[in-house]
Backbone:
């Protein structure tokens, strides 16, 4: 439990979260301000949309056999990472503002670790997708020949690395014993860790952009050679369509996350004049918006995915109609009941031969 006493000289392991926030200059108000209400309301709205939309993507990939290929498994794993990001950010919304100073250090590290894990998982998934596309497109294939077992191993590896990255600060890379090295945005994190984490992610972005640039140059050159063969043209168009979808996902990821990573680096480098706290919350909401962009890209770029979305969304409606039609309970007017009785009498007299004629009169 956090107390206000030092356990060893130079270390502040028993100090409260409030102590570290005050020392780093990130003061948290004891009451809710208008800015806090705006951030929490906007953040929670984004979270619920993110959770719903990515559940839809995961359901579509599981439901439709057309998506049972390595590239879609990786895209599904990216949707799981986005779903986890939505849950993590929702957890953050319930532990922010005046609630922050009530957290223990352990709960604070859990809050930040969830966000770190979700971002790392998203970055690694995008890197895996880039490698998969490089492998298949340079062989002019639509889908990789990787086995389902290998894809599963890759996904497990991605989540293991993401979890470890989220736990690194808790395991020792913090500033509890180095108060002068505490971050301003994340007052219990070491500035050196923020620099390491930010540079690592920006480097990964750069690698992915380079890979996709090389793929586009290759596909453009190869497509000119295939223009005379109809079957190859169709394959080329399919490959290009999938490439555009994946590239849009990568582009939106870079646009949404780069501002947040930049101010993270500025904070880690100790830029006192950058006023990172003024933009921190808004850039974090922008980063979270990336997790709801991907399902939108799927629905606009992939007809099969869009059709599967509609089938899932209409499933409940169809079940409701089926229950109503099978219940046998109908409310009819007296005129309809009298007509039904006349038709029944006619069937008894003519052995049913006049049923069609009687029904046609109505």
Residues:
């Amino acid at each position: 439990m956090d107390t206000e006493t030092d356990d060893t000289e130079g270390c502040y392991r028993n100090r409260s979260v409030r102590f570290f926030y005050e020392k780093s200059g990130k003061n948290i108000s004891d009451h809710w301000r208008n800015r806090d209400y705006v951030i929490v309301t906007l953040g929670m709205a984004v979270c619920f949309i993110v959770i719903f939309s990515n559940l839809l993507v995961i359901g579509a990939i599981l439901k439709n056999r057309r998506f049972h290929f390595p590239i879609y498994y990786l895209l599904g794993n990216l949707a799981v990472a986005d779903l986890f990001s939505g849950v993590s950010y929702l957890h953050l919304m319930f532990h922010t503002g005046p609630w922050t100073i009530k957290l223990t250090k352990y709960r604070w590290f859990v809050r930040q670790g969830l966000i770190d894990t979700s971002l790392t998982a998203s970055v690694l998934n995008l890197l895996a997708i880039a490698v998969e596309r490089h492998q298949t497109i340079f062989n002019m294939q639509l889908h990789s020949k990787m086995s389902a077992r290998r894809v599963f191993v890759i996904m497990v590896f991605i989540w293991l690395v993401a979890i470890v990255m989220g736990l690194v600060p808790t395991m020792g890379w913090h500033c509890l014993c180095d108060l002068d090295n505490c971050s301003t945005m994340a007052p219990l994190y070491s500035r050196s860790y923020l620099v390491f984490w930010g540079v690592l992610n920006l480097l990964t972005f750069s690698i992915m952009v380079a890979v996709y640039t090389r793929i586009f140059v290759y596909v453009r050159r190869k497509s000119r050679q295939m223009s005379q063969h109809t079957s190859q043209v169709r394959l080329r168009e399919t490959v290009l369509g999938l490439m555009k979808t994946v590239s849009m996902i990568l582009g939106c990821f870079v646009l949404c996350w780069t501002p947040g990573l930049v101010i993270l680096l500025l904070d880690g480098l100790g830029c006192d004049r950058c006023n990172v706290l003024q933009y921190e919350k808004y850039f974090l909401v922008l980063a979270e918006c990336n997790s709801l962009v991907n399902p939108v890209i799927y629905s606009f770029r992939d007809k099969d995915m869009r059709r599967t979305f509609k089938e899932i969304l209409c499933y409940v409606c169809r079940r409701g109609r089926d229950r109503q039609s099978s219940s046998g309970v109908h409310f009819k007017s007296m005129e309809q009941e009298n007509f039904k009785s006349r038709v029944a009498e006619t069937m008894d007299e003519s052995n049913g031969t006049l049923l069609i004629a009687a029904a046609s009169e109505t």
